[in-house]
Design a protein that fits this description.
Radius of gyration: 17 Å
Distance between the termini: 36 Å
Number of helices: 0
Shape: globular
Number of strands: 15
Low-confidence stretches: none
Largest sheet: 4 strands, antiparallel
Mean pLDDT: 90
Structural class: mainly beta
Length: 191
Amino acid sequence: GDSLKEIAVVIRNAQNEHRLAVFGGDGRVVATLVLPAEVYYDPTLIPSPQGGQIGPEDVVVVTVAGDVLRITYANNALSSARILQLGAAAAATYDPLARELVFTYPQRNSVEVYSLVQAQWQRVRELNIASAFAYPVVRSGQAYYGVTVANQLTAVNRDTGNPLAGFPVALGGQAAGALVMGDVVADSPGS
């Protein structure tokens, strides 16, 4: 409700309990929720079914067991519901252009893409890739870009999974996390 000023973060305490905390843009705690299991990777946001053109959004996390949890804020509290069971730990990202949830698996050479069909998330395609992605992918144009478990930067066609020309590229070290994409070099030709 207040112009993208809520901050959601997954927190693990000394007892290995995972919780989602939502803070306001002014630093106050809006709500917290103890999660039923260990979370695998960072949360992502998807449009809330109650939302309009802009917000509100729900938080999605994936547990190490592969449960995909949708966390919703309503009536001054957070609640969670399992929307998918993937069977393995995965990193999630939401593609707002295609309105798809994209899951990458550190132990599988595949990318799974889900769309909301009649109020249910359904797998619409699975891409077989040469090396598993270690982190969430980023979409640009018709490609997913990401870092593989082999510490390579790679780009694959988002419909076929085929690598783009020039990829993969060795990173020359171990990636510390997911990549970001933007216009860093103003006069670079890009693609």
